Amino acid sequence: MITTKMFDFYGLEFVSRPLVPSMVSAVVNGFPGNCFRRVLRREATGCRKLSSLHVKGSSFKSTKSSDRSSKNYSDQLKEIGDDGGPPRWFSPVESGCRSKGPLLLFLPGIDGVGHGLKLQHERLGEIFDIRCFHIPITDRTPFLGLSLSLSLSLSLSHLTFRMIVIELVKLVQSTVRREHDRSTKRPIYIVGESFGASLALVVAAQNPDIDLVLILANPATSLSKSLLQSVAPFSEMIHKHLIPPPVETVLWKLRMIYEMQSYLDSHLHAVEAQTLILTSGNDLLMSNKTESDRLSSMLTQCCYYQIGVFSIFLQDETFDLVATIKRVSYYRRGASVDYISDYFPPTPSELKMILQPFRWMNTALDPVMISTRVSGELVRGLGGIPSQGPVILVGNHMMMSVDAVLLVSSFWTDENIMVRGMAHPLFFERLKKGGKLPDLSMLDVIRVLGGAPVSATNLYKALSINSHVLLYPGGFRELFHQKGEEHKLFWPAKSEFVRMAARFGAKIVPFGCVGEDDVVQLLLDRNDQMKFPPLKAFIEELTGEAVRLRSDAEGEIREQLLYYPVVLPKIPGRLYFRFGKPISMEGREDILTDKEKADEMYLEIQNEVHKFIDYLKENREKDPYRNLLARLSYQCFNGFDYQVPTFDI
Asked: Which of 564, 560, 483, 478 is nearest to 517 (CA)?
């Protein structure tokens, strides 16, 4: 007889008891064999996959993109059979086995069949090793060997329902602990939808010692406050909104949600997992934003993300879970995010979506790019930039980073070059709850396009894999400059990047940019605002919340006060960029060993940037299309696909 010890749940102590023989079987690759009954087949590679044929009651079919739009959520559920077997795990066929990616466990919603993965598993399978938890529609999760009828199951006492919830939690927890023991240095992702989100939180509360990342879609953790209970009786609401799952199945799951909610009300503080809450704002089983605010305030590592208004957004063809995970920097393969090695470039559709909000900037500011070939020839565009890395692009920064997104996106769209921008850690850190800093979700584009927190370590990693790196030595001091400092450099005295470039034989491309003064006029800068005590206190509080860099530096570069510049928008002018001739560091061992040589190269690069700024300021006066109205007139006459001319190069 095989025995097991049940864990403490609801404050009750349970003793060891015999397991029902039917619930115990051989272990297959660390998973209970009966969890893969009639589902898994062995491959020569050792990966566990579904049979290419549809297995009744166990999974969904492989769905081609052309089929996705023809079947709605209700039609898909009708395809699922039900063999009445116990809950089990399965792996989607197309996702295969990803030994290098972390494990992702999907816990389904009220339906229990895992349809939340139907449109997501192919993309998820590229970066995760996926397992989906399947709870057959007629399953009532046997307790102590009892096979429960529908009428009996719906009349069970609260205590018995707690026992049943324990059994379900145990099934998930045993898999989590087994996989954690296999690879203690990798996180385990749990994606829970509605009912599954509550289950994920219970498992996390029971296992605070395991590195878990929870992604909760419309978590049903506050059912008593939801529309399901307050607007209409259960039966009417279920028949109207929640069919096709049988009414008895829905009622059974709701009883289980209530039990999990009761537990979480007193144990939510025990959840240590990194948590991302995805809410549609239109779900029957939760009070959307209010509940998300409640959870994020109670969980120590939590943020939430609004996903449109489609209630079952995991079934929405326009929603991409992988893109969302990358956007909020929640993908990692170790204890913390490695912004270089954990980065996956956006797909063409992702790139189009993330750049869509910035199209107006590209139209309004119409940046002029001028680069220099190795021969010294100036060319319009980015054709003079080396296509093969490692390359470091070094230049001046505009106020509020007006230039960075347009610059990086131009490399992507015009030259198919991925540029890794080194940005302030503030753009990657989770903000202090209740702090003064604004929500930085609008800067998700920095992370999606390959940005990384500026540091010597990240620069080293990026150059070691032959990346193109964008570096602004002036950092925050140039980003939040004062009146009259639009084109002034505030670089540190130390040659921070030159030796690193020499170590990898990288090419350094200095550049200058102008045009900020043609877009906005700075009315109140930091010095103006610091004269008012309330604003001074606000600026100091803002600065105190941000990560400090170069606190040991000397001179003006040390001044990194954060403030909100008060600006007056202008009829947009134009942005101008000039890139210099690539400076090769290959074979320059003298720079590695001689500090004076490195400093000389650093000053040479600085002088080049100054020269390019002066060149652009002088020549933009000759541009007949510097003004937005002139450019629009040209495009109306010649077509908006035509490149607007500029001054003679």
From this structure: 483
Question: Do the beta carbons of residue 367 and residue 539 sit within 8 Å?
Answer: no
Which one-letter DSSP state was computed for residue 399? G
Nearest partner of 577 among 508, 515, 507, 489, judged by Cα = 515
Buried b / exposed e along 246-261 (16+ C-beta atoms within 10 A): eebbbbbbbbbbbbbb
The owner of tokens 């930085």 is 440
Tokens of 313: 């957004």
Three-class DSSP labels, 271-282: CCCEEEEEECCC
Q: Are 461 and 341 in contact (CB under 8 A)?
A: yes
DSSP state letter for 620: G
Separation of alpha carbons 212 and 398, rounded Å: 40
H helix or E strand, kind and range, residue 59 = none
Identify residue 522 by its one-letter amino acid code. L
Give CA–CA dist 139/531, Å, rounded. 69
HEC-encoded secondary structure of 84-97: CCCCEEECCCCCCC
- 69-84 exposure pattern, b = at least 16 Cβ within 10 A, e = fewer: eeeeeeebbeebebee
Q: Which of 212, 194, 223 is nearest to 108 (CA)?
A: 194
- Rounded to an integer, what is the distance from CA 303 to the centroid of its chain? 11
- 577, 571 in Cβ contact below 8 A? no
Domains, the chain, ranges and CATH?
27-327 (3.40.50.1820), 348-522+562-638 (3.40.1130)
- For the stretch 109-147, pLDDT in tens is 877 777 777 778 888 888 898 888 887 766 555 433 334
Q: Give 574: exposed, middle or buried? Use CB within 10 Å, 0-12, 13-18, 19+.
A: buried
Secondary structure (3-state) at 394: strand
Where do we find the tokens 């204890």?
A: 335
Q: What is the pLDDT of residues 536-548, one digit of tens each?
A: 998 888 887 776 6
Confidence of residue 313 (pLDDT cuts 50, 70, 90): low
> Which residues, in sequence order, are bridge partners of residue 567?
522
In angstroms, the CA 182 to CA 561 distance is 47
Question: pTM, whole model, 2 decimals?
Answer: 0.79
DSSP code at position 242: I
**Token pair in block for residue 137:** 């529609």
CA 339 to CA 345: how far, in whole Å? 12
Tokens, residue 558: 């040390």
Q: How far apart (Å, rounded) are the C-alpha atoms in residues 502 and 440?
A: 35
